[in-house]
Give the backbone structure.
Amino acid sequence: MIPILSPKEIKRVEKKYLIKSNNKSILQHRAARGISQLIIEKNPSVVFIFFGPGMNGRDGLIAGKLIQKKIGGENVQFVSCIEKNSSNKNLIFSKNENINVKEFDKKLLTKEIKESKDTIIILDAIIGISSRGNLRSELSLKIKFLNSLCKKNDKVTIFSLDIPTGFDPESGLKDKNTFISDEIIILGSQLKKSILNPESFKKINYVDIGFKRSELKKQNFNFEALTPNIIEEKFPKRPETLYKNKFGSHLIIGGSNKYPGAALLCSKSSNMSGTGHTAVLTEGSIAKKIIEKSPEITLFTSSFSEEKYFKRFSSISLGVGLSQDEKSKEIINSFLNYINNTKNNHNIVIDADALNILSEIKYWWEKLPSTTILTPHLGEFNKIYKFKDYEDIFKKILNFTRKTNMCLLLKGPSTFIANGKEMVINTSPNGGMSKPGMGDVLTGLIGGIASYPKMKINDAAIIATYIHSNSGKLSRDCKGSTSMTASDVISFIPQVFKSLEI
């Protein structure tokens, strides 16, 4: 598990963990093993490890020794960034461990990095999560030099441990010369401020150092990063002998002349989600186009008054492609009346203009079951839950889910999924997904997965977010951030699902 915590909370969790262990350096060594594995997998010719004062970068030093065993001692260089009058604990540690430390020499670094034809990895282990405020001027200038030296050098990849040097873990602000890292290696716990200020955390690798979810819940720490391990726990393996009706049915209610493509995108992603059946309730002209593009989709033509016909749908998605006209409002009100009176059980996904319409209805949340998830972006969230501006986003989300007894998926550079007790956060921003239709694709995935037997709506949202995010990464790698589309993301969904089936 990778908990998401403040610096003080991280120290508290680590201290409590170490109290139970006879080995007081166990977390450090687990971190070092994880770092070394990630670096070695990149097949570098040379590795530079920059470390700081006190114990800042100690796990980097230990990792460096492990890397030396794989690529040779002469190919790993340890460079001190310790300033005058700063703690020299790491220098004493290095001497005791027979680590050959070099001083920060601009001329030598220029020669070895700029002129090298080998693949180089720079490990930024200079400042840790205990740092505060801006960098001291001497260190800030060193980072400025390294950023300039490595700029546009395709032979160099920069990894930072936990945070890039120059990022303030308390405020989330950056020094003017913050290390420009290619990737961040998160060691055991992730900072809350890295979620709220994701610009420096665009690509993240996680090293799990052994924190247990059950133990952290006892300490009331219920925020965690979305990692493959979570999906391995939640993703249901598909039996080979069951027929399609045993995999549930998903009904999509949406589409309008204003947004004709939304229901199509939603239905296509649903159809790839593993559900046994996807049906669409939409306008006739849109329905015809959906069938032309996706012949596997069926049409649903009954009204909400015919309760028995809705029974077959284990999940219902509402809102994609609706507008806010009177017809759409009538659909929402009819649905609320149905769901408030029916004995049928459904997992429900509410998205897009359905949220805007709900925001105009008093106590709308009382009309929906706890098996409902809302999927707003921040603007829509502001409409449906008029919170105080000074509340932090973690508090806003939990307050909302507790007040309404429903789940929430808040879309943005980081995606928050919460159910009132815990929160999972996808910390993989992808600028290429800031495009029309991406939310419709996500809704189709959530609704389709939510149709599985015994699937909880919150778990469906977590799995769907992972699938959506990783399909987006594959699309970006293939098409680029500028030109990738929602349809491109759909085309990569099967690859992500296939990777989970192995």
